[in-house]
Design brief:
This protein is mainly α. The protein is 72% helix and 0% strand. The protein is built from 16 helices and no strands.
Amino acid sequence: MSWVDSPKLVHVRPYLKIMRLNSLTGAFLLLWPCLWSISLAAKDGFPVVLALMFIVGAFVMRSAGCVINDIVDRKIDAKVKRTKGRPLANGTMKLHEAFALLILLLSMGGAILFNLNDTAIILGIVIVVPIFIYPLMKRVTYWPQVFLALTFNWGAIIGWAAVRDSISIEAVLLYVACIFWTLAYDTIYAHQDKEDDAMMGMKSTALKFGANTKKYLYIFYAAMVAILWVVGIRMGSGFLFHLFLFAGAIQLFWQVYTLHIDKADSCMEKFRSNRYFGAIIFLAFVLGNV
Protein backbone atom coordinates (compact mmCIF):
# COMPACT_ATOMS: atom_id res chain seq x y z
CA MET A 1 0.00 0.00 0.00
CA SER A 2 1.18 3.51 -0.78
CA TRP A 3 -0.27 6.98 -0.33
CA VAL A 4 -2.06 6.80 -3.69
CA ASP A 5 -4.19 3.92 -2.36
CA SER A 6 -5.95 6.23 0.08
CA PRO A 7 -9.78 6.05 -0.27
CA LYS A 8 -9.81 9.84 -0.59
CA LEU A 9 -7.91 9.59 -3.88
CA VAL A 10 -10.10 6.98 -5.55
CA HIS A 11 -11.16 9.29 -8.40
CA VAL A 12 -7.65 10.45 -9.30
CA ARG A 13 -5.78 7.25 -8.41
CA PRO A 14 -5.45 6.02 -12.04
CA TYR A 15 -3.85 9.33 -13.00
CA LEU A 16 -1.43 9.21 -10.08
CA LYS A 17 -0.48 5.62 -10.83
CA ILE A 18 0.04 6.03 -14.56
CA MET A 19 2.37 8.94 -13.77
CA ARG A 20 4.15 6.68 -11.22
CA LEU A 21 3.75 9.24 -8.47
CA ASN A 22 3.67 6.32 -6.07
CA SER A 23 7.23 5.41 -7.11
CA LEU A 24 9.57 8.32 -7.80
CA THR A 25 12.84 6.47 -8.36
CA GLY A 26 12.61 6.95 -12.11
CA ALA A 27 12.10 10.69 -11.72
CA PHE A 28 15.25 10.97 -9.62
CA LEU A 29 17.23 8.92 -12.13
CA LEU A 30 16.09 11.31 -14.86
CA LEU A 31 16.85 14.34 -12.70
CA TRP A 32 20.35 13.56 -11.45
CA PRO A 33 22.16 13.86 -14.83
CA CYS A 34 20.50 17.27 -15.26
CA LEU A 35 21.70 18.50 -11.87
CA TRP A 36 25.17 17.01 -12.38
CA SER A 37 25.47 18.89 -15.65
CA ILE A 38 24.19 22.16 -14.22
CA SER A 39 26.54 21.97 -11.24
CA LEU A 40 29.52 21.33 -13.52
CA ALA A 41 28.69 24.02 -16.06
CA ALA A 42 27.97 26.74 -13.48
CA LYS A 43 31.36 27.88 -12.22
CA ASP A 44 30.09 31.09 -10.59
CA GLY A 45 27.66 29.66 -8.05
CA PHE A 46 24.94 27.07 -8.30
CA PRO A 47 21.93 28.35 -10.36
CA VAL A 48 19.10 27.58 -7.96
CA VAL A 49 16.24 28.87 -10.12
CA LEU A 50 17.43 26.91 -13.14
CA ALA A 51 17.80 23.81 -10.99
CA LEU A 52 14.22 24.19 -9.75
CA MET A 53 13.02 24.39 -13.34
CA PHE A 54 14.83 21.15 -14.15
CA ILE A 55 13.46 19.48 -11.04
CA VAL A 56 9.89 20.24 -12.07
CA GLY A 57 10.67 19.39 -15.69
CA ALA A 58 12.22 16.04 -14.79
CA PHE A 59 9.19 14.95 -12.78
CA VAL A 60 6.78 16.13 -15.49
CA MET A 61 8.65 14.49 -18.37
CA ARG A 62 9.21 11.28 -16.48
CA SER A 63 5.46 11.11 -15.93
CA ALA A 64 4.90 11.79 -19.63
CA GLY A 65 7.31 9.01 -20.52
CA CYS A 66 5.44 6.60 -18.25
CA VAL A 67 2.14 7.49 -19.91
CA ILE A 68 3.63 6.89 -23.36
CA ASN A 69 5.08 3.59 -22.21
CA ASP A 70 1.75 2.45 -20.76
CA ILE A 71 -0.16 3.43 -23.89
CA VAL A 72 2.19 1.42 -26.09
CA ASP A 73 2.49 -1.55 -23.70
CA ARG A 74 -1.05 -1.71 -22.31
CA LYS A 75 -1.78 -5.16 -23.78
CA ILE A 76 1.59 -6.56 -22.72
CA ASP A 77 1.32 -5.07 -19.23
CA ALA A 78 -1.95 -6.93 -18.70
CA LYS A 79 -0.06 -10.23 -19.05
CA VAL A 80 2.86 -9.40 -16.73
CA LYS A 81 2.49 -10.00 -13.01
CA ARG A 82 4.36 -6.84 -11.98
CA THR A 83 2.48 -4.52 -14.35
CA LYS A 84 -1.02 -5.97 -14.69
CA GLY A 85 -2.30 -3.50 -12.06
CA ARG A 86 -1.39 -0.45 -14.14
CA PRO A 87 -4.43 1.71 -15.01
CA LEU A 88 -4.56 1.03 -18.76
CA ALA A 89 -3.78 -2.65 -18.28
CA ASN A 90 -6.55 -3.25 -15.73
CA GLY A 91 -9.12 -0.94 -17.34
CA THR A 92 -9.39 1.68 -14.58
CA MET A 93 -8.31 4.33 -17.11
CA LYS A 94 -9.57 4.79 -20.65
CA LEU A 95 -7.19 5.30 -23.55
CA HIS A 96 -8.55 8.76 -24.35
CA GLU A 97 -7.98 9.80 -20.73
CA ALA A 98 -4.34 8.73 -20.98
CA PHE A 99 -3.90 10.73 -24.20
CA ALA A 100 -5.45 13.81 -22.57
CA LEU A 101 -3.09 13.50 -19.62
CA LEU A 102 -0.13 13.05 -21.96
CA ILE A 103 -1.00 16.26 -23.84
CA LEU A 104 -1.22 18.13 -20.53
CA LEU A 105 2.15 16.81 -19.32
CA LEU A 106 3.89 17.55 -22.62
CA SER A 107 2.43 21.06 -22.56
CA MET A 108 3.82 21.60 -19.07
CA GLY A 109 7.21 20.28 -20.14
CA GLY A 110 7.16 22.53 -23.20
CA ALA A 111 6.33 25.57 -21.08
CA ILE A 112 9.44 24.93 -18.99
CA LEU A 113 11.64 24.17 -22.01
CA PHE A 114 10.69 27.37 -23.85
CA ASN A 115 11.88 29.44 -20.91
CA LEU A 116 15.44 28.22 -21.51
CA ASN A 117 17.94 29.58 -24.04
CA ASP A 118 17.79 28.76 -27.75
CA THR A 119 20.40 26.00 -27.65
CA ALA A 120 18.61 24.18 -24.85
CA ILE A 121 15.25 24.58 -26.62
CA ILE A 122 16.58 23.01 -29.82
CA LEU A 123 18.11 20.13 -27.88
CA GLY A 124 14.83 19.63 -26.02
CA ILE A 125 12.87 19.42 -29.25
CA VAL A 126 15.34 16.94 -30.77
CA ILE A 127 14.69 14.37 -28.03
CA VAL A 128 10.89 14.29 -28.44
CA VAL A 129 10.86 11.66 -31.21
CA PRO A 130 13.16 9.18 -29.37
CA ILE A 131 10.88 9.45 -26.32
CA PHE A 132 8.04 8.02 -28.41
CA ILE A 133 10.23 5.40 -30.14
CA TYR A 134 11.86 3.88 -27.05
CA PRO A 135 8.85 1.81 -25.82
CA LEU A 136 8.88 -0.10 -29.13
CA MET A 137 12.52 -1.17 -28.93
CA LYS A 138 12.06 -4.25 -26.73
CA ARG A 139 10.08 -5.76 -29.58
CA VAL A 140 12.99 -5.58 -32.03
CA THR A 141 16.30 -5.69 -30.13
CA TYR A 142 17.91 -7.23 -27.08
CA TRP A 143 19.38 -3.77 -26.37
CA PRO A 144 16.35 -1.57 -25.57
CA GLN A 145 18.34 -0.33 -22.58
CA VAL A 146 20.67 1.46 -25.01
CA PHE A 147 17.76 3.42 -26.46
CA LEU A 148 16.51 4.21 -22.97
CA ALA A 149 19.97 5.39 -21.95
CA LEU A 150 20.35 7.62 -25.01
CA THR A 151 16.94 9.20 -24.35
CA PHE A 152 16.78 9.24 -20.56
CA ASN A 153 20.10 11.03 -20.04
CA TRP A 154 19.67 13.77 -22.63
CA GLY A 155 19.11 16.14 -19.73
CA ALA A 156 22.87 16.07 -19.14
CA ILE A 157 23.29 17.78 -22.50
CA ILE A 158 20.34 20.15 -22.07
CA GLY A 159 21.46 21.13 -18.57
CA TRP A 160 24.90 22.15 -19.80
CA ALA A 161 23.40 24.09 -22.69
CA ALA A 162 20.94 25.85 -20.37
CA VAL A 163 23.87 27.24 -18.37
CA ARG A 164 26.42 27.99 -21.11
CA ASP A 165 24.30 28.19 -24.26
CA SER A 166 26.74 25.76 -25.89
CA ILE A 167 27.99 22.17 -25.70
CA SER A 168 31.51 21.09 -24.70
CA ILE A 169 33.45 17.83 -24.61
CA GLU A 170 32.84 17.64 -20.84
CA ALA A 171 29.08 17.64 -21.40
CA VAL A 172 29.40 14.87 -23.99
CA LEU A 173 31.61 12.80 -21.69
CA LEU A 174 29.11 13.24 -18.85
CA TYR A 175 26.35 12.07 -21.19
CA VAL A 176 28.34 8.97 -22.16
CA ALA A 177 28.99 8.19 -18.49
CA CYS A 178 25.26 8.42 -17.81
CA ILE A 179 24.57 6.03 -20.69
CA PHE A 180 26.74 3.37 -19.04
CA TRP A 181 24.97 4.05 -15.73
CA THR A 182 21.53 3.50 -17.25
CA LEU A 183 22.66 0.39 -19.11
CA ALA A 184 23.57 -1.12 -15.75
CA TYR A 185 20.66 -0.09 -13.55
CA ASP A 186 18.02 -0.80 -16.19
CA THR A 187 19.50 -4.25 -16.81
CA ILE A 188 19.05 -4.87 -13.09
CA TYR A 189 15.47 -3.61 -13.36
CA ALA A 190 14.75 -5.82 -16.39
CA HIS A 191 15.67 -8.97 -14.50
CA GLN A 192 12.37 -8.63 -12.61
CA ASP A 193 10.37 -9.39 -15.77
CA LYS A 194 12.71 -11.67 -17.69
CA GLU A 195 10.47 -14.76 -17.49
CA ASP A 196 7.39 -12.86 -18.68
CA ASP A 197 9.41 -11.05 -21.35
CA ALA A 198 10.82 -14.31 -22.70
CA MET A 199 7.37 -15.90 -22.77
CA MET A 200 5.92 -13.01 -24.80
CA GLY A 201 8.90 -12.62 -27.14
CA MET A 202 10.07 -9.35 -25.63
CA LYS A 203 13.80 -8.62 -25.46
CA SER A 204 16.15 -7.01 -22.94
CA THR A 205 19.77 -6.95 -21.83
CA ALA A 206 18.70 -9.07 -18.85
CA LEU A 207 17.83 -11.86 -21.29
CA LYS A 208 20.87 -11.09 -23.46
CA PHE A 209 23.38 -11.30 -20.60
CA GLY A 210 21.63 -14.00 -18.58
CA ALA A 211 23.92 -15.62 -16.02
CA ASN A 212 26.79 -13.32 -17.12
CA THR A 213 24.88 -10.19 -16.07
CA LYS A 214 27.13 -9.30 -13.13
CA LYS A 215 30.21 -9.26 -15.35
CA TYR A 216 28.58 -6.71 -17.64
CA LEU A 217 27.32 -4.65 -14.71
CA TYR A 218 30.85 -4.36 -13.33
CA ILE A 219 32.07 -3.26 -16.77
CA PHE A 220 29.32 -0.66 -17.24
CA TYR A 221 29.70 0.80 -13.75
CA ALA A 222 33.50 0.86 -14.01
CA ALA A 223 33.26 2.68 -17.33
CA MET A 224 30.91 5.22 -15.81
CA VAL A 225 33.16 5.94 -12.83
CA ALA A 226 36.23 6.21 -15.06
CA ILE A 227 34.54 8.72 -17.37
CA LEU A 228 33.23 10.76 -14.44
CA TRP A 229 36.76 10.86 -13.07
CA VAL A 230 38.03 12.18 -16.41
CA VAL A 231 35.28 14.82 -16.42
CA GLY A 232 36.24 15.91 -12.90
CA ILE A 233 39.90 16.15 -13.88
CA ARG A 234 39.10 18.22 -16.96
CA MET A 235 36.90 20.55 -14.90
CA GLY A 236 39.59 21.01 -12.26
CA SER A 237 37.49 19.54 -9.46
CA GLY A 238 39.14 19.37 -6.06
CA PHE A 239 39.82 16.70 -3.44
CA LEU A 240 36.19 16.40 -2.32
CA PHE A 241 35.19 15.40 -5.83
CA HIS A 242 37.58 12.44 -5.76
CA LEU A 243 36.48 11.50 -2.26
CA PHE A 244 32.78 11.42 -3.10
CA LEU A 245 33.40 9.72 -6.46
CA PHE A 246 35.24 6.95 -4.59
CA ALA A 247 32.25 6.66 -2.22
CA GLY A 248 29.98 6.40 -5.25
CA ALA A 249 32.16 3.67 -6.74
CA ILE A 250 31.87 1.70 -3.50
CA GLN A 251 28.09 2.05 -3.64
CA LEU A 252 28.01 0.69 -7.21
CA PHE A 253 30.27 -2.22 -6.25
CA TRP A 254 27.90 -3.03 -3.36
CA GLN A 255 24.99 -3.07 -5.77
CA VAL A 256 26.51 -5.69 -8.04
CA TYR A 257 28.18 -7.74 -5.33
CA THR A 258 24.99 -8.18 -3.30
CA LEU A 259 22.62 -8.48 -6.28
CA HIS A 260 20.62 -11.68 -6.76
CA ILE A 261 19.46 -11.51 -10.36
CA ASP A 262 16.82 -14.21 -9.83
CA LYS A 263 15.18 -12.43 -6.89
CA ALA A 264 12.85 -9.59 -7.88
CA ASP A 265 13.10 -7.93 -4.47
CA SER A 266 16.88 -7.78 -4.72
CA CYS A 267 16.71 -6.33 -8.23
CA MET A 268 14.27 -3.62 -7.16
CA GLU A 269 16.33 -2.75 -4.07
CA LYS A 270 19.52 -2.31 -6.10
CA PHE A 271 17.72 -0.40 -8.83
CA ARG A 272 16.21 2.03 -6.32
CA SER A 273 19.55 2.52 -4.58
CA ASN A 274 20.78 4.43 -7.62
CA ARG A 275 18.83 7.42 -6.25
CA TYR A 276 21.45 7.60 -3.51
CA PHE A 277 24.32 7.10 -5.92
CA GLY A 278 22.98 10.08 -7.86
CA ALA A 279 23.01 12.19 -4.70
CA ILE A 280 26.60 11.16 -3.94
CA ILE A 281 27.80 12.22 -7.38
CA PHE A 282 25.87 15.48 -7.14
CA LEU A 283 27.76 16.26 -3.95
CA ALA A 284 30.99 15.27 -5.67
CA PHE A 285 30.47 17.82 -8.42
CA VAL A 286 29.10 20.60 -6.19
CA LEU A 287 31.72 20.27 -3.44
CA GLY A 288 34.45 19.60 -5.99
CA ASN A 289 33.81 23.04 -7.45
CA VAL A 290 34.03 24.82 -4.11
